[in-house]
Amino acid sequence: MAEGSDVNMTGAPSERECVVLANGHDNVAPDSEERAAKRLKVDGPAKLAGSNAIEEPVNVPAKPKENSVVENTMPAERLRDAPANEDDVKRPDVIDSRDRRNGDAPIKKEYLIDVSASKNSSEAVDDDEAEGRGGNANGVPRQDDRDAGGKARGKKDKRSKGQNTDRTFGKFDDALPLCNSRAFYPEFSPRECKYGDRCKLCHDLRKYLKEGRRDDVETFGGKCPVFEQYGSCPSGWKCRFVKSHMQEVEREDGRKELVLTNNNNNKLAEKAKADGTAEENGESGEQKHEPGNDEPEERRLGIVNVVPMAHKIELNRRRTNFTKADQYIKWTNHEAELGNEFHHRKKGQSTEGIDDLRARFVDPPFKPSEKRRLYFGPETPTLAPLTTQGNLPFRRLCVELGCEVTYSEMALSMQLLQGSKADWTLMKAHESEVSPPKFSPGKAFVFDTYNNAKDLKFGAQISGNQPWMVTKVADVLNRFCPHLRLIDLNCGCPIDMVFKSGGGSALLESQAKMERMIRGMNVMSGEIPITAKIRTGVKNNRPTATQLLGRLAFGAREHRERLGAPGCAAVTLHGRSREQRYTKRADWGYIGECAALVKSYNTQKDALTDTVAEPDASTLPNAKDGRMYFLGNGDCYSHVDYFDNINKAHVDSVMIGRGALIKPWIFEEIEKGQFLDKSSSERLGYVERFVRYGLEAWGSDELGIGFTRRFLLEWLSFAHRYVPIGLLEYLPPSLNDRPPAYRGRDELETLMASTNYKDWIKITEMFLGPVHPGFQFIPKHKSNSYEAEG
Ligand SMILES: Cc1cc2nc3c(=O)[nH]c(=O)nc-3n(C[C@H](O)[C@H](O)[C@H](O)COP(=O)(O)O)c2cc1C
Ligand SMILES: [Zn+2]
Ligand SMILES: [Zn+2]
Prior knowledge:
By secondary structure, this protein is α/β, with parallel strands linked by helices. Among the domains are: about 120 residues, no CATH class; about 35 residues; about 300 residues, TIM Barrel (Alpha-Beta Barrel). The chain has 26 helices and 12 strands. Strand 7, helix 14 and strand 8 form a beta-alpha-beta unit. The longest helix is centred in the C-terminal third of the chain and has 22 residues. The N terminus and C terminus are likely disordered. The site of one zinc ion has 7 residues, from loops. It is found in: Cytoplasm; Nucleus. Its cofactor is FMN. It is an enzyme of class 1 (oxidoreductase). It comes from Tolypocladium capitatum. Its EC number is 1.3.1.89.
């Protein structure tokens, strides 16, 4: 398939080594039954929910030493050499599920439900449909504006098969919304409302509390989880747990005043100071005005990259200063025109003519700054950028479970440049994402000047269809978001809205444009490195990744010498074409070929730096010894897949999408090198954590609860697909297997496997109370939206 590759990666299951179901034997027998006999069978049902040893691995013969996972050998390697577990060796019928793939999850008989009479087993799910998030590319707002109350309505997109495109979530706000000039202050000393008489919101606190809102939520023992955590609650009076952090105090004149309890003014004050939103007059009434801005989103704790409203307004009014970017863009445009002429020059044009043309090329007005170095290795499993799903609370959960690198949801360049709140919201990260990723030197290539202490986990992903657009976006991201590891250009998005506008995967076939985009971003992003996420190609039978990689590594032949490399510090390849749907497996053979190619490029670059032909150091992606990191992506669903991919395809690291959505503890499995059979109660514990993180990020008011519920439901639309491994006949499980109808080991496990979204709503109500009367949830996949039968 690919030119210049000498790697033989078949990826065929029959030729794979069995990595984790290790029993000390190598997997050599040609006959699959015989080979299977050397493998281990999964034990009976794991411990039931509620037992303590829920994390006990299912049938992992050798337990890795505590904390030795990355420091010593990689788990997969260690497990391969692990001594056989006696019990397991005795079993004759030992099978690796990869020998038996037929698309159905191999659920043990005792858990199957006979559904011959009713429609119940899950339909194939087209995960491509999940990538969109409503709205369109032309600036029409989307419905998931997490800071605008979900009130925006996107224009109806063309209906596509299997997807509920016209999704609404109802309106979830207070009946009588309280004005922010009242929301955070004691009853007798509110702020003056900026909007005066024009303000339609409620200014009477008692009225609001009495008739303007629903009753407090009774979950979490009625105690505000945010207040419990931080000693203050940024939702103020609007909090649906406000009873737990308010009181009525009697003043000297006998008047009774409602005040908010605040055990921790300091944290908010510190944040306000750090954000530059601290008040100047320092007015401090007896019950203290909380310092900070009246924008609720700017008050929340533990969240970074919160871009002040003023910046967004400036962008929207086109008052942001883009002098430098404009200068560069002018040069790019000139360059593009000349490039065009050069390409379309008449055959047989005289050499003088060509030289004339050449002479008209001018150097760019400036060069990229020195970039912060990146690192990707086996110890940095990476969460994929995931529209809607990869929201801040979900990423925070993944990081807690061992994820080392995270990406924002894809933001649209045009929207960012227009100051769209919804898209700037996507740049926010949790402070846990700002800590350095794990780093064990010796695992993968590392730059001499890599500084792990300066590195962080969170990167931004943007899409765009024009070089000027993404160049400006890189500029503002660099100026407005202090905590970005990298800026990734989406060159893989398959959805029509993006593709038809020339962005996302359309860029795979506009390589000159893509190169200009990367160059422009790299020039304007300051010290933030630029990366790209690509697919194998647009069409199935026309893979373009190999060609593209050369271009990203060195730039087009014609300007290589003059301009140097475009400055792409890492590439992630999703091993599917745009055309291909998720039903086919990602092509890890092709990913392996591409990894080998990148490796050879890196060697060439090393050679280049040793010769007189050394290119201008400042133009290389990672300066002088510029090299690209290379990540593979597609279908990773356990540590087995993860280390298989790393060991066989020789990628630096693996990016994980749906696997993490279905079981976020995949990162823990990778860290520990073993399967984890999580009980239903433990899984519900993750749901609870998500809820807490949601309330912290979006607020514990009606709106924040609505968003938390909505995004929890989105997550559950993936999480319910998890089949507990204790229920499986064989391991490893496959991401693409569909389970027949089955029951869990307890009621909760059965509930959590329900494909009916009404059951998912029940799960949200366990933590968030009854849904708002106007609340609606229509799952993205039609296959999930059928009603309960009987
Ligand atoms: C719900 C969903 C949303 C996605 N959103 C994005 C996105 O915003 N940007 C992107 O580059 N890829 C996106 N993808 C693609 C994933 O990043 C990833 O490439 C793909 O899911 C394959 O990896 P997997 O097999 O591990 O899921 C999305 C995929 C899904 C399922
Ligand atoms: Zn007002
Ligand atoms: Zn609260």
